[in-house]
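job 3f2a | input accepted
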Amino acid sequence: MNGHELMTSPSRQSKASAAGANHFVLTFENNRYASELFGQFDQNLKLIEERLHIDARPRGNSVSISGDIVATNQARNALDYLYDRLLKGGTIEKSDVEGAIRMVQAADDQLQLPTMERKAKLNLAQISTRKKTIAARTPTQDVYMRALERSELVFGVGPAGTGKTYLAVAHAAQLLERGAVDRIVLSRPAVEAGERLGFLPGDMKEKVDPYLRPLYDALYDMMPGDKVERAIQAGVIEIAPLAFMRGRTLANAAVILDEAQNTTSMQMKMFLTRLGENGRMIVTGDPSQVDLPRGVKSGLVEALQILRDVEGVSVVRFKDVDVVRHPMVARIVKAYEAQTAVPDESEQR
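job 3f2a | predicted structure (349 res):
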């Protein structure tokens, strides 16, 4: 491990009961990385304290950790992973600390987690481009990122804020940089709540660009802006409404369909059958947020049923606990899911 444990004393009282208490000191060799690990004004340590209910007291390049034996070991594993990330040239943000905490907690909740190596060292799935490296922040993200590597068709479904689209675009950018594909095709159905494209000003590109903006944002986060612009102009990266996919065969391409819950059955079938030789296809959406007209079945919902046993297809389902945006978003999603599960009186009638 990167953080060297200097002492262990189960007798020290802390936030845990005496029976299950633990205390040790971790020392990190690189002073600069230790400072980055602890965070400005020790904010990363404070976050670990808050989430794991332990006591973490920094001193120089060391930190004294006290608390429940399970929680303190989780803190050690999280700090060890984050320090190793710094040694490899990465950076640490608050979301990375949150992710490390989630993963070490998940490791203890499961008897055998696929992402765990011996000695409980975290080995999180990663997506790397020249501009940025992303590590999984939840167990489901880890499963999703591994599925993207091995499967030709991946469905990522679940609530907003879980990273479905962002990770899909990041993976496509990675494949393009590796030379595994020749181009990226990003698409969304132009269906929205309460509005119609025909009423918007401008030509077709100006009409649809607002609905494709999340895809642009993810691309610019993973690749330098000038390269994205050149790739779009050269047709290496294509961002278009779903209607533009008809009649095409997309070979040697990473193809992403976002907001797929708003496709009809025919649109979804049309899109899925565009997959060509050496192609990769990723479909993302939230079946609980369908904006189609009443009575029109979602193509995503139908596809999940029809393709569940098809070889080469992976389905990864995200939940509210996988939301990696502001913690309030996870609570909002959970509240809405609870309300949806209990029909109101008018629905019952």
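job 3f2a | The CA atoms of residues 115 and 189 lie 35 Å apart.
job 3f2a | closed
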